[in-house]
Amino acid sequence: MINFYKDPGFLGTKAYLYSDITLILILVSAALFTIGWQLAVRKRYQSHRWVQTTAVILNAVVVLIVMIGSFIKNISPGIAGKLNETSYLVPTVHAIIGITGLVLGVFVDLRGNNLVPKALQFRNYKLFMRTSYALYMLATLVGVIVYLVLYT
Q: How do residues 89-146 score in pLDDT, each as one tens digit?
């Protein structure tokens, strides 16, 4: 039987299988976000909405199932005394950027699907979408750095 938390990964690093799968899923979500952005540029808004919603769901599932638990278990206990170490600092920066991007991205997606109350709706939709996209991409980049720092 496959043990995702103990079996070696398939990317040729010291990472476990779950870390390799997580990296691939996050890169897929980043690619989907970029495809969705290009659909919006081409004014294909219905397709844009579906692609972005799929990317938000995929990203949120990976973050909620894998990343938050991993951070709480492996990083947060040592933050107080080891934040000056790269293996603690980079994941902490990643977590701050990532959770900010996730919360904003989920909110923007809910707004794009008309699932937020009128009082919480915003008018400058492009600003919120662009900010969310930038945070997702930055979190992805820092996440790849985390992977490289921890497993290579």
A: 999 999 999 999 999 999 999 999 999 898 888 888 889 999 999 999 999 999 999 9
Of the candidates 143, 148, 146, the residue with the CA atom closest to the CA atom of residue 30: 143
Contact 78, 71 (CB under 8 A): no
- Evaluate whether residue 107 is within a structural domain: yes
For 51, other C-beta atoms within 10 Å of its C-beta total 21
Q: Is the dihedral of CA 63, 83, 148, 30 positive or negative?
A: positive
The structure tokens 């496959």 sit at 2
Domains identified in the chain, total number:
1
CA nearest neighbour of 135 among 89, 107, 96: 96
Contact criterion met (CB below 8 Å) for 36 and 48: yes
What do you get for the CA distance between the two ends of the chain, in Å?
26
Range of the domain at 37: 17-151
Q: Give a yes or no: residue 25 inside a domain.
A: yes
Q: Widest CA span of the chain, in angstroms?
A: 51
